[in-house]
Amino acid sequence: MMSGNELQFGLICLGVLAIVGVLIFNFYQDRRSRKHAEQAFRSTHHDVLLDDNGEPSIPPAPGGRMEPGLPRSPAAAGMASAGTANTPRPVLARATQPELPGDEHMIDCVVAIDAPAGVSCSALFAAQLEVMSGFARSLHWYGWDDAENQWIEIDAHTPGSLNRAQVTLQLADRQGCIANNELERFYTQLQRVCDQFLAVPRLPQRAEVLQRAGDLDKFCSDVDIQIAINLVASSVPFVGTKLRGLAEAAGLVLGSDGAYHQRDEVGNVQFTLTNLEPLPFTPEQLRHLQSKGVVLSLDIPRTLNPAHTFDRMIAFAQHLADALDGVLVDDNNVPLSERSISLIRSQIYQFELQMERQAIPAGSPMALRLFA
Questions:
Q1: Quick one: the chain helix, strand, coil %, rounded to 5?
Q2: Tell me: the pLDDT tens digits for 14-48?
Q3: How many CB atoms lie within 10 A of CB 321?
Q4: E strand or H helix that includes residue 244
Q5: Are residues 138 and 200 in the same domain?
Q6: pLDDT, tens only, 132-141
Q7: Which long-range contacts link 61-68 to residues 24+ away (Cβ below 8 Å)?
Q8: How far apart are the first and last CA of the chain?
Q9: DSSP state of 106
Q10: How far apart (Å, rounded) are the C-alpha atoms in residues 313 and 307?
């Protein structure tokens, strides 16, 4: 028979063997579970975020825009697989901001506006009318038409929406150039309009804008010249009805400002005929007019081909002098000689060349705005 100590020792050994058996069984089950999990979730696809050789293929959304990628260096390109080395990916460049049509923006402060969320054209125009009213200078709004691939001027009736816009403020005119406080007001109010539509204006540097405005103002001062030729009566005053007949026969038209205007084919004034006395011409007044003289004048910066137009004005003035028995004189009442007329023509031509060198030709749309 087994003693008590032997029985106790035997039970302890059986307990230890049982525990070891349980541990071995658990270890076996754990390994088996891991192997099944690895087989179930194993993937043969490359991870495009971790694998250098992977090239994700993500087509752009219909009508969307793909952001440009950066070109890879030669070292990085050498690490690519042979399959991708033969078919390099094109590097896309962001399109530059298209410029406004024509060259008129040369005399404006132009602010580009990005509206990623889109904005209604009519809503934008209405908002700027409310916030930015009161500007004495020329202010215009343009929107980029994606369908037509061009800029269109925005007004209260412009349909559709836009993601890009531009606003222009004229920098100078005959009253002078834009001042710092005026530019500050323009920037502040423009920002208020943009904030309403989550749009972002790209405001030019103020110092640069003010410098351009000052240069334009100096240019305007240098070429802002009007030429006036007086035709005075030699003996008897000019009769209004005869003067009217001669002017209208030459194609001049009486305007609401009390002056006769000679216009070109598109309606721009070439030269004017006014009363030397402080009394405007009217149809009623011309019936009884007895005038001591008339004035023929030409506005150089607002006239196409001013030197040539001056010759036409002089020819008409001499025609009037012959018909009305008058004399052409300058502001000092000195008769004009052929030499004097030639010197005036030469000076006009120099001003004409100066404007062309500035890329603002006399009589051009830009010149008409600057010298309004």
A1: 40, 20, 35
A2: 666 767 665 665 555 555 545 544 444 344 444 43
A3: 16
A4: helix 240-249
A5: yes
A6: 988 888 899 9
A7: 66/92, 67/92, 67/94, 68/92, 68/93, 68/94
A8: 133
A9: G
A10: 10
In this structure, are 234 and 365 located in the same domain?
Answer: yes
CATH code of the domain covering residue 206: 3.30.1400.10
Instruction: Out of 194, 221, 248, pick the residue that ends a domain.
Output: 221
For 285-346, the DSSP string reads HHTS-EESEEEEEEEGGGSSSHHHHHHHHHHHHHHHHHHHTEEEE-TTSPBPPHHHHHHHHH
Encode pLDDT of 183-226 as tens digits. Answer: 999 999 999 999 999 999 999 999 999 999 999 999 999 999 99
pTM of the model: 0.69
> What are 338's two structure tokens?
């052929």
Domain with 192 in it? 104-221
Instruction: Please name which of 368, 365, 340, 363 lies closest in space to residue 352, comparing C-alpha atoms.
Output: 363
pLDDT of 231 strictly over 80: yes
Condensed to tens digits (0 to 9), the pLDDT of residues 240-255 reads: 999 999 999 999 999 9
